[in-house]
Design brief:
heterodimer; A: ABC transporter involved in vitamin B12 uptake, BtuC; B: alpha/beta; Rossmann fold; six-stranded mixed sheet; 33% helix; globular
């Protein structure tokens, strides 16, 4: 690139051609970066004296190929997708909610309270619990909204710190007799968990091609479509976008940051809360609420949204990819490789997707300096 | 391109050949030749967007040329960053100041120096430069307490500290009163005469260059259209060369910095008397976060069909006034009434709903959403009209956008184009289109033509006058006296957050206006 382009401006390629060339170059860069990340992971496996072919084979088996595995993967992807959707809503409104791990715990806890402590028809408890879970997650994020708009506390910090509050609160709940502790004297570990949900409050499972997955998967995908539609095509999405891109203009035309921003944070938290509730009724931890119930789903949902570049539909494949790494890692034991390799691979993938924009920037700068230094004068 | 005949008595300090710079498909500078000579002030004249600033940025190493060569004292050299440029004796005073408000003058001057910090030596150096060039500055004053004119002196001292032999000033008078501009020019002339500086004075103001320069290079669309000796030039011929066609010096006055008093006197006052004011701002006072006074009992009223010009030097309360009228700032005391009804200041959308439309000075920051489409921006403030049960009616939005694009002659590839891809003039047309399309009662236009080319400036001026003719009360806030004189029926002067003087256009007195904006009410007031 640094040696051509001495033609006069009039004879340069038309704008569209140039844009397509740039795009295909970027696509190539992305592909190369991803292969680079996978290659590096393979190299690390090889360096520890193991077979990378076996590792990738095991990951693929664990995620998709072995009997019943892809259904399992989809069920794991479901809460990640929900968390990511909530993140996207907040990001569009210019807010960074990174406390989904805590909001998810709150949602799951409320579902457990409704499911184990209240009486009523199972369907009612199931639906009521999911709604309560969403409200709990939303309200938990809403505390951060109040702190932001009343006291100017950045939501990035407050949502993150509120995770630790949620951890303490839910930890307290499961060891407290009157709260959520399982009171069945026949279970030895009952002091650490809630009672199991009754079968009539479980979310139905869909059985297909020898696999089964939670109905929640369908709900989550449907919600992704709804979020995409609301953001792009409705007046609420419009307001979120104006607020996110330019809060000054928003204030001017009557979109109050306090109201609209709080709504965005609430919705964002509600998605995480719903994710927690649906994990519980889909059978996570054997339908019991436990202190470590969230198992990093909240954090991983954030990464899903990051890699999907805040596009709701793109969150679907990204969530499946991350879920596949997670379920696939369960099969690594047979290869003798530590399952932490999956965390490394995930981190490498995240970094890999940041490389192409950086390369484009550096190349442009180099070109300019080379010209100034006289290569072409 | 023919070069001007060399004058043997003036030696070339800096010689530029074939400088070219492209940004994407836009050619900002095309094959530009320029010679700056010792002992001369060289005016670079051109409209906004003609490529003047880009050319200067390449001389100082802030932008890197795609092609071309630079020679200093006849020796070819390459400038890749501002340090490099300083090392070769080139200094620049920028259009926008780069001073730290909270620091003192000497601290600002010492900022960015590589050697060990020595307060006393720095102070002494500042005093020496002050005395030598008549740049009166107290080294221990805090920058935040200084007026724009003094801040500029600090910038110049920062620049002179490196003893440059080639001095570039980019639109130096845009924030100065006429008296301060005069002072600046005498400093420059002194330096040129005594020290043999080569000065490049970049401006879009014709009058200024006719008055202060020895030679003028005129640029248009990134190219040099001519080099002339100032002694041989006159305003109409320069204006024609600058714009590329004959221009009405009156309607284009803001673009070329000429005030034609004869034409002003001939203009008739069209304001209808006797109507109750549509906008009344009474005793508006606001303090900033640090307790500084932003508005200090500002009172002004606008009748329907009237254009009231608020003249003043930048930083005297124009921005807070604009913010109040955009619902971005709440008053501490005082009131704003629209059509007799008091409007809650600072509440989101309250001004807009009361019928106030604002064309802000910083259209990028508060006039539009660059990332959204042209169509979305055009219906931004009336989006509720284009929704059905919460769902955007995209056909209706597109239809309305196409109408407005045609009516206001916005040049855009299409309504779906991202707003940020439009040129400055077209962005401003779109902002104006949105402001007028909602049928406002009051239109507040703040620096509506800043940074635009002549065609766009004439258009905006015409539109403002038409809006007034339709019965809208127009408050025109501008630092450009020419623009105010050309458009306003009545002129008020803003100084340190309040209105300190007023005159109808029929009694326009540019000299008194010049004094007023400097804060001197004098006896004539």
């Amino acid at each position: 690139m640094s040696t051509t382009d001495t033609r006069p401006a009039e004879s340069r390629q038309p704008f569209l051609d140039e844009r397509w060339r740039t795009r295909s170059e970027m696509a190539l860069l992305y592909a190369a970066s991803i292969f680079g990340a996978l290659g590096l992971s393979a190299l690390m496996v090889a360096m520890t004296g193991n077979s990378w072919q076996k590792v990738f084979g095991a990951l693929l088996d664990g995620a998709f190929l072995a009997p019943g595995r892809w259904g399992n993967t989809l069920t794991v992807a479901m809460p990640m997708l929900l968390v990511a959707l909530g993140t996207v809503v907040a990001v569009r409104a210019g807010l960074f909610n990174i406390g989904q791990e805590g909001q998810l715990l709150m949602g799951a806890m409320l579902m457990a309270v409704v499911g184990t402590k209240m009486e009523g028809p199972g369907v009612l408890l199931l639906i009521g619990g999911m709604i309560m879970g969403a409200v709990a997650g939303g309200a938990f994020a809403g505390i951060s909204a109040v702190m932001r708009y009343r006291r100017g506390v950045p939501e990035v910090i407050s949502t993150l710190l509120m995770v630790f509050v949620a951890l303490q609160l839910t930890g307290f709940a499961v060891i407290t007799e009157w709260f959520l502790r399982d009171n069945d004297p026949n279970r030895p570990q009952r002091a650490q968990t809630s009672a199991a949900l009754d079968a009539d409050t479980h979310l139905p499972e869909i059985h297909i091609f020898g696999n089964s997955f939670s109905l929640g998967v369908i709900i989550a995908v449907a919600l992704a479509v709804v979020v995409a539609f609301v953001l792009a095509r409705t007046v609420w999405g419009f307001r979120f976008r104006v607020l996110g891109h330019n809060p000054i203009v928003a204030q001017k035309i009557g979109i109050a940051a306090t109201r609209t921003g709080s709504l965005a944070l609430f919705v964002s938290g509600a998605f995480a809360g719903l994710a927690g509730a649906m994990m519980l009724v889909s059978g996570s931890s054997s339908y019991r609420f436990t202190p470590g119930f969230s198992t990093n789903i909240g954090w991983q949902g954030l990464l899903v949204a990051l890699l999907a570049r805040s596009r709701p539909i793109a969150c679907i494949p990204m969530a499946v990819l991350f879920a596949a790494l997670r379920t696939g890692s369960g099969f690594l034991a047979s290869t003798g490789v530590d399952r932490k390799i999956v965390d490394v691979t995930q981190a490498l993938l995240v970094l890999a997707l940041l490389i192409p924009p950086a390369v484009a920037f550096i190349r442009e700068r180099r070109r300019a300096v080379a010209i100034a230094a006289g290569d072409r004068v | 391109m023919a070069l001007p005949s060399e004058r043997p008595e003036a030696t070339a300090a800096l010689e530029v050949r074939g400088m070219t710079k492209r940004f994407g498909n836009l050619v900002a500078c095309a094959d530009v030749d320029l010679v700056l000579r010792r002992g001369e002030i060289h005016g670079i004249l051109g409209e906004n967007g003609a490529g003047k600033s880009t050319l200067m940025r390449m001389l100082i190493g802030l932008a890197l040329p795609d092609a071309g060569s630079i020679a200093i004292d006849g020796e070819p050299c390459r400038i890749i960053d501002p340090h490099h440029a300083a090392g070769r004796g080139i200094g620049m005073v920028h259009q926008h100041y780069s001073l730290v408000d909270a620091l003192t003058v000497w601290e600002n001057v010492a900022l960015g120096e590589k050697e060990h910090l020595d307060p006393d030596a720095t102070r002494a150096r500042i005093r020496a430069i002050s005395e030598r060039y008549g740049l009166d500055v107290d080294p221990d004053a805090r920058v935040r307490d200084l007026t724009a004119g003094v801040r500029q002196r600090v910038e110049i001292i920062k620049c002179l500290r490196h003893e440059p032999r080639i001095l570039i000033l980019d639109e130096p008078t845009s924030v100065l009163t006429p008296a301060e501009s005069e002072q600046l020019f005498s400093v420059l002339k002194e330096g040129v005469r005594r020290e043999g500086w080569a000065v490049a004075l970049v401006s879009h103001k014709l009058d200024e260059l006719l008055h202060a320069s020895d030679r003028i290079t005129i640029m248009r669309d990134g190219r040099v259209v001519s080099h002339v000796l100032t002694a041989d030039a006159d305003a109409p011929s320069l204006a024609r060369a600058m714009v590329g066609r004959d221009v009405n010096l009156f309607s284009a006055s803001a673009a070329i910095g000429v005030v034609d008093e004869a034409a002003l006197a001939a203009a008739t006052d069209a304001a209808k008397p006797g109507l109750p004011p549509v906008l009344e701002i009474t005793g508006a006072s606001v303090r900033g976060a640090d307790g500084e006074i932003l508005l200090d009992g500002l009172t002004v009223s606008v009748a329907p069909g009237e254009v009231v010009g608020v003249a003043g030097v930048e930083g005297n309360g124009q921005e807070p006034l604009s913010k109040v009228m955009s619902s971005l700032l709440a008053l501490d005391s005082g009131s704003v009434r629209v059509d007799g009804v008091e409007v809650a200041t600072g509440r989101a959308g309250a001004m807009m709903h009361a019928g106030v439309a604002v064309i802000p000075a910083d259209r990028h920051a508060s006039g539009c959403v660059m990332e959204m489409s042209v169509a979305e921006n055009l219906v931004l403030s009336s989006i509720e009209r284009y929704t059905e049960r919460g769902v955007l009616d995209r056909d209706a939005i597109r239809k309305r956008a196409v109408e407005l694009i045609a009516e206001f002659d916005v040049h855009t590839p299409g309504p779906e184009t991202p707003f940020g891809q439009l040129s400055g003039g077209n962005q401003q047309r779109a902002v104006l289109a949105r402001a007028l399309s909602v049928g406002p009662k009051v239109l507040v236009a703040v620096q509506p033509t800043r940074g635009l080319d002549v065609g766009a400036i004439e258009y905006i001026g015409e539109r403002l006058q038409r809006a007034a003719a339709d019965g809208i009360g127009v408050l025109l806030v501008s630092t450009d006296l020419g623009e105010i004189a050309a458009l306003a029926h009545r002129i008020v002067v803003i100084y340190r957050g309040k209105i300190i003087g007023e005159m109808p256009r029929a009694q326009l007195d540019m000299e008194r206006l010049g004094l007023l904006i400097g804060g001197s009410t004098g006896e004539a007031a």
